[in-house]
Amino acid sequence: MEAYVKSNIQNGIGTIEFFHPQSNSMPSSQLRNLVEEINNLSKNDEVKVIILKSGGEKAFCAGASFDELISIKDFETGKTFFSGFANVINAMRKSPKLIIARIHGKAVGGGVGIACAADYTFATENASVKLSELAVGIGPFVIGPVVEKKIGTSSFAQLAINATEFYSAEWAQEKSMYQDVYETPEEMDAEINLLAEKLAQSSQDAMTKLKEVFWKGTDDWDQLLTERAAVSGQLVLSEFTVNAINQFKKK
Fold first, then answer.
1. Is it the case that residue 52 has pLDDT exceeding 70?
2. What is the pLDDT of residues 205-242, one digit of tens each?
3. Count of other CB atoms within 10 angstroms of residue 223
């Protein structure tokens, strides 16, 4: 199946779904399309609440596309690529609509960033998390601010430093990355639908004001995440990172 990002609107609920055949990894084109869909639904007066999900039954999102990472040969290309994740986080942050994330499977790197950038996150017991960036010589610089905001500096440091370890959905819930965790996707979807339907009947003005409260103190993130993208864009050019990504691709 080909990669896609698509959305639909039903009864005031806007749903965005993304898919990539390589474990829902994110090349630049996928990141741009995701930003576009978030912005479109954010501006649509028919939409009261947004659900963000991915396709397939395995990983929720494997983070950056290793195929694209290994092809980066200069700083500007690297900075532009990592700015794609910055743009997704900022689109979610600046959306006037509350965003519910549906995490049905493993979330790695940028996938963790998406889970943390949502205003309310549902997950299944299979939705373990990992920040693998340090293991390939990069570091989770772009998604760092939103992960740290959601789970705190100590837990962010634990994920960032122990970069080869998956942490369970239970751990993620304990750290407030996930608000609710369910045994099966079916149970999770039933609860997501219940909450989304309630929110679709709520005051849009009140929800928008509430979201402003949630994201207070992040007005500098357009600049901050761009600066962080530059750090990653430089590091991805290192011999260490090139070798490490090639080793990962062989597994």
1. yes
2. 999 999 999 999 999 999 999 999 999 999 999 989 88
3. 9
Cβ 86 vs Cβ 229: under 8 Å? yes
Q: Which pTM value belongs to this model?
A: 0.96
Distance of CA 179 to the CA centre of its chain: 15
Q: CA-CA distances (angstroms) from residue 199 to 12, 43, 50, 121, 251? A: 9, 17, 10, 14, 43
Domains located in the chain, CATH noted: 4-187 (3.90.226.10)
Distance, in Å, from the CA atom of 219 to the CA atom of 94, rounded to the nearest integer, reads 9
Residue located via tokens 């040969």: 73
First to last CA, the chain: 22
Q: How far apart are CA 154 and CA 116, in angstroms?
A: 15
The span from the CA of 79 to the CA of 231, in Å, is 8
Instruction: Let me know: does 3 contact 13? Beta carbons within 8 Å.
Output: no
3-class state of residue 112 by DSSP: helix
